[in-house]
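This is your field. Have a critical look at the following sequence-structure pair:

***
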Amino acid sequence: MTTHLASPRAEFAAGVVAILPLAVAVMPFGLILGANAAAKGLSLAEVLAMSAFVFAGSAQFLAIDLWRDPAPWAALGLTTLLINLRHVLMGASFSQKLGRFGRAGRLVAVFFMADEIWAVAERRALERPLTPAYYAGLALPLYVNWLVLTVAGAALGKLVADPRALGFDFAFTAVFIGLVAGFWKGRPTLKITVASAAAAILVHRLLPGAWYVIAGAGAGIATAALTTPAAPPLPAAAKR
C-alpha cells in the first residue's frame, strides 16, 4: 500500500476529481426530488433545509412519498430509520480507516457519509490512507451540488414532473450499479451481489416499507462471511 501522502491541497483536488462523475450522475434525481417536494407543498426554504440537514437521497424520496398534511411523523421516522440502517454497516467499515480524522473529524465525516462518498472513500482507503482533505474533496462538491439541485428542482417544478419521459427514473439504479461495479472482484462479488439482490427483491414483494434494504444488506453480509476468506490485518500506515 502506498504510504506517501500528497499535500492537503492535492488531496482535496484528488477528491473533487474522484467525486465529479457521481456529482453529475445525481443531477436527475436531485431535480426530481425537488420537484416532488414542491408538488407536495414544500417551500424552497423547506426543501433546502431538508437536503441540508438530512442529506440522504433515498430517505428523502421515501419521506416525500409519505408526506401529507398533517405529516405522519411516526411513519416518516420509522421509514427513514429503516432505509438508513445501512449506514451502521457503512460506518463499521470506516471504523479502521479514519485514524487521521480525530474525534470531531469522525463526526463530520459520518454526517457526510452518503453512499457515493462512502464508496469512493472506501476504494481510496484500499490504496492509501484516507485523509480529511481527500474526504472533504469528496463531500463538499456533492453536498453543495445536492442542495442546488433539489432547490432547482423545486423551483422548476413541472419541467421535471415526468422523469420517465427523459429516462431520469433510471438514474438512481444506474448510479448504484456504478458503485457496485467499482468494487467488482469477479465471482466472489457476483455471489454477494446476486444474494443481496435476490433477498431485496423477495422482501420488497412480500413486505411493505423499506425492509428490503435491510434484507439485501443482511443477505450480502451473510454471503460474504460464508464465502470470502479472512482478509489480512490492515497495515499500520493505513490506521494512522
Notes: The mean pLDDT is 81. Residues 67 and 151 are 18 Å apart (CA to CA). The first helix runs from residue 8 to 25.
